[in-house]
Specification:
By secondary structure, the chain is an alpha/beta fold. Helix content is 35%, strand content 9%.
Length: 472
């Protein structure tokens, strides 16, 4: 028996979409689609206001780094955003769509369709909710930059130096309400542990988590706080020290791997694209030799479902069985899917989802945590996480047990099983899918203008090489 817990809400999704690479929509699209397919009632618990205190971030990150990152002066609209019409228009777009849809269908405004109309309102709600936590912690002193002389030449000089030192520039800029973002999204992963039990298997989900590139004192690859490492650290404190971390992101899970490269108890497995010049440039087969329980599975351009299945059956499953973990954490990045902007792999939503669910089914005694990750086609990612969530609830939800015919409860097939007739359900953000003709499987439909077939450069001989390397 499994207990299913997910952290998601309009509040959390709007906070997650403060992250610039989310385009003010990625998380909200996913949350709205989860609601549209009525998936949340199949969970035992739905966490709606996640939060973690500043001092809890020190379980991995350095004090100096957290001093700079979790600075209350950043919980505001920063000067570079004040007069930016693009940011404001993107923020308002989903609010307007929600309002128009509500008026069109003439239904009362309920929690599922509410949206904060401004970032200031979002932060105001955040502060009001914090009172319930009695968050009076000020145990981390701010650095010298945090003075009343905000904007002085000296402060600006030190800020620029620190931004470079901690890589808070380029793909990891300081953005408006960054502290709130870090504490809410990290909390969405760590708060899942509040429902951990010794007598019941926990399956916890946070599609906004999986920030696997962040280092101890450096932001990296759109990642500021490494919630994966903090989750593992917390699990170790709970005496669940034998853990497998499995990463399906297109990019190497460098931050998590580095954090545990000297630990035999923490197995890190990263399946990723490894080619010259591709970020982050690590994750070769030989890099695995630098760790005590480090597994890198470097793949080439064009990886498809059948090849990933081969990797899973011949490499991943045997390695996990050898380690025999008590907990498995899966980073469910979707940037290897057909339709992603990287256009490097050609995995399907169904294929990648089935690979993940098969792993969950193969280790029924292990607690499972499913986290988000990369994925740079927001409309595609909402489909992926919604379908994967349905697969998980179909297999493991207590609420579904005893249903006579589960196929009748499948919202992703039609009577004729014709994908071309499968449209995205009506909901408040359905018009975002207008240019894709509202079709759920448009990126996987034969003959679709959105479907592309890539050359697969991965060979069966590489599987044999991997098996020999890891002595399987």
């Amino acid at each position: 028996m499994s207990k299913l817990v997910i952290s998601t809400s309009v509040f959390q999704s709007q906070v997650a979409d403060l992250l610039p690479c989310n385009n003010h929509q990625k998380s909200q699209l996913t949350h709205s689609l989860l609601n549209a397919y009525s998936l949340l009632p199949h969970f035992d618990e739905v966490l709606t206001f996640p939060y973690v205190k500043k001092n809890e971030l020190l379980e991995f990150h350095s004090k100096a780094y957290i001093n700079l990152l979790i600075n209350e002066k950043l919980n505001r609209i920063l000067p570079q955003d004040i007069d930016d019409p693009v940011v404001e228009s993107k923020w308002c777009e989903l609010v307007e769509l929600t309002t128009n849809w509500k008026e069109k269908v003439n239904r009362n405004l309920v929690e599922g369709f509410q949206r904060f109309t401004s970032r200031e309102d979002l932060y105001g709600y955040y502060k009001s909710q914090l009172k319930a936590f009695n968050d009076d912690e000020d145990d981390i002193s701010f650095n010298e930059m945090d003075s009343d002389e905000e904007g002085s030449t000296k402060d600006h000089y030190f800020l620029e130096l620190e931004k470079r030192e901690y890589n808070l520039e380029g793909d990891c800029p300081i953005f408006s309400y960054l502290p709130m973002y870090c504490q809410v999204i990290t909390g969405a992963t760590l708060n899942l542990l509040d429902h951990l039990s010794l007598t019941e298997r926990l399956i916890g989900i946070n599609w906004d988590g999986g920030r696997h590139h962040a280092f101890k004192q450096k932001a990296n690859g759109f990642c500021y706080i490494n919630d994966v490492v903090l989750l593992i650290q917390r699990l170790r404190k709970l005496k669940l020290s034998k853990i497998t971390y499995l990463d399906f992101d297109l990019h190497h899970g460098d931050g998590v791997e580095k954090a545990f490269q000297y630990s035999k108890q923490i197995q890190t497995i990263s399946v990723h694209l490894y080619e010259p010049g591709f970020f982050p440039g690590t994750g070769s087969l030989n890099d695995s030799l630098n760790g005590k329980n480090t597994v890198n599975i470097p793949l080439k351009h064009g990886c498809d479902d059948s090849y990933l299945n081969l990797v899973a059956s011949k490499i991943i499953h045997p390695l996990i069985e050898r380690h025999d973990p008590k907990v498995i954490i899966i980073e469910c990045g979707g940037d290897g899917l057909l339709g992603d902007k990287f256009n490097e792999w050609q995995l399907t939503i169904r294929g990648l989802s089935q690979t993940i669910v098969n792993i969950m089914k193969s280790y029924p005694q292990a607690h499972m945590f499913l986290l988000g990750g990369g994925g740079y086609n927001d409309l595609l990612m909402s489909r992926f996480y919604t379908y994967l969530t349905w697969c998980v609830t179909k297999e493991f939800s207590i609420a579904r047990e005893g249903e006579e015919d589960k196929s009748q409860d499948n919202p992703f097939t039609t009577r004729y099983d014709d994908d071309s007739e499968q449209f995205i359900r009506e909901h408040e953000l359905v018009e975002m899918y207008n240019e894709e003709n509202y079709q759920y499987w448009i990126y996987e439909m034969e003959g679709s203008s959105r479907m592309k077939t890539l050359r697969n450069d991965n060979k069966v001989e590489h599987i044999v090489e991997l098996m020999d390397f890891y002595k399987l």
